[in-house]
Amino acid sequence: MSCEPPAISVRGLTKAYQIYNKPIDRLKQMLWHGRKTYYREFLAVKGVDLDVARGETVGIVGRNGSGKSTLLKMICGTLPPTTGTIDVRGRIAPMLALGAGFNAEFTGRENVMLNATIFGMSEREIADCFPRIVEFADIGDFIDHPVKLYSSGMTARLAFAVAIHLKPDVLVIDEILAVGDDAFKRKCARSPRADQGARCHDSVCLALGPEDH
Amino acid sequence: MALTHPYATADRTTWQIVGIPLNPLEPFTALWRHRSLIRGLVKREIQSQHKGTLLGIVWLVVQPLMLLTVYTFVFATAFRPHVVDEDASKATYALMVFTGLILYTVFAETIGRAPRLMSSNKTFIKQIIFPIEILPAVVIGAALVKAVVSFVLLIAAYFIFIGVPTVTAITILLVVPPLLFLTTGLAWFISSLSVFIRDCAPAITVLVRLLLFLCPVFYSIEAIGYPYRYLILANPVSTCVILSKQALFKDQWPSPTHVAIYWVVSLFVLWFGYAWFTKTRKAFADVM
């Protein structure tokens, strides 16, 4: 494992949030190319170095506001870092917020299709793994009801079931599983591809190795 | 195609400064790359517009059919403004209006949605890895599907009231693509700008209504005298509407110069909109 390059490699990662009073200030800032400053800074993450090998699970713990979610968002690529580099090898499945990527008006089934398409799966691949997703989520008839009727636990179940069946190389989970019940958490833990992710209530990066597929 | 980082260069992803895409083919390759996702989202978009209705997807045909019936009835019997061309029969005039409206609606629906396109898809920007640059293409794609249905009805009505279209009708395939390029380019620009300037939404609402009357939909361009004609020609939809009406109803080939200029300008707008969008998108999360 040591000779292989890490699945996630983070070097000198810093995020200083720029806080703007008005949205238009952000545009002015861009157009002035930094000759003038329109924002205040808030330092959320400073100088993080992190390597996650294939097959390794890393849990990130810390108090509220200590920058856990910020770090994970940067790893997922939804938030640009201020300085530093992030190398991620392979496909990432982010689970950053409950119900993210779900359209509340559509049924669970339709949302599974949509999520898998966004992730870049072909229609045949989706059809192949669809029964397994439904089985893993185990939400009964609710799969054909709109997601807006789901409880938080059901939403988390479906999201997790989708994420692990997409066969990502890296799975990033931010506190979503905290809303699942114990039975579901045990099930996630038993799933070979989900390993420790489900047991920890906190932010987790999973780098899934080839043996997990 | 696997999705990795939004700013990924290859499979191995590294953050880097996103430069302006100088390659004019860039907007096309970006959309082509996500074609199956766009197709899926367009389908969803159309379904969601009729979700929960009794007729469901049938509305896709019923809606334009009702519009066509009403326009034909109103313009062919009751109402006829004095600015129309004298040689057009009443049925022809009604179908001309319908042609103009089909084209204008593609523009209006897309541009009208653009200001709120980013804010209504916040989770796509902040919580999942999603190619948000395809969202304007999804909106115009859905508008285009509806336009094609309307166009089929238009051609059916054409056969009934006028007869077999002339060969020049084929040139419609030459004048519609620039309209799509222009609209997509503007949608990219407006959807990005409205993230930073919220005033765009009310301004665009008014503008979209205004431009309908500054477009030769209800009248013919020849009826407008000269300084004002420039104002109408400045409307991005006008050229397409004028040339389409000529090709369909007047048996006239479009002037190659006009078509060439329209293509060049629209491709530039498409490229500029895309370049602006790519340049500004990394700042979206800062202000949403």
Mean pLDDT across residues of chain B: 83
Helical content of chain A (DSSP H or I, runs of 4+): 25-40%
Question: Whole-Å distance between the termini of chain B?
Answer: 28 Å
Structural class of chain A: alpha+beta
**Strand coverage percent of chain B:** under 5%
Count every beta strand of chain A, where a strand is a DSSP E run of 2 or more residues.
7
- Overall pLDDT score of chain A: 77
Spatial strand sequence of the major β-sheet of chain A = 3-7-6-5
Distance linking N and C termini of chain A: 17 Å
Fill in the keyword field for this structure:
heterodimer, A: 213 residues, alpha+beta, four-stranded mixed sheet, three-stranded antiparallel sheet, 6 helices, 7 strands, globular, disordered C terminus, B: 288 residues, mainly alpha, 12 helices, disordered N terminus
What would you say this structure looks like, in words?
Chain A contains 6 helices and 7 strands; from the N terminus they run βαββαββαααβαβ. Chain A has a domain at 8-90. With 213 residues, chain A is of the alpha+beta class. In chain A, the strands form 2 sheets. Chain A has a 4-stranded mixed β-sheet, with helices on both faces. In chain B, helix 7 packs antiparallel against helix 10. Residues 1-19 of chain B have low confidence and may be disordered. By secondary structure, chain B is mainly alpha-helical. Chain B has helices at 26-33, 35-49, 59-78, 90-117, 122-126, 135-161, 172-196, 200-213, 226-233, 238-249, 256-280, 284-287; one strand at residues 12-13. Chain B has one domain. Chain B contains 12 helices and 1 strand, in the order E-H-H-H-H-H-H-H-H-H-H-H-H. The interface between A and B is large, with 42 and 40 residues.
Offer a quick outline of the entry.
The complex is a heterodimer of chains A (213) and B (288). With 213 residues, chain A is of the alpha+beta class.
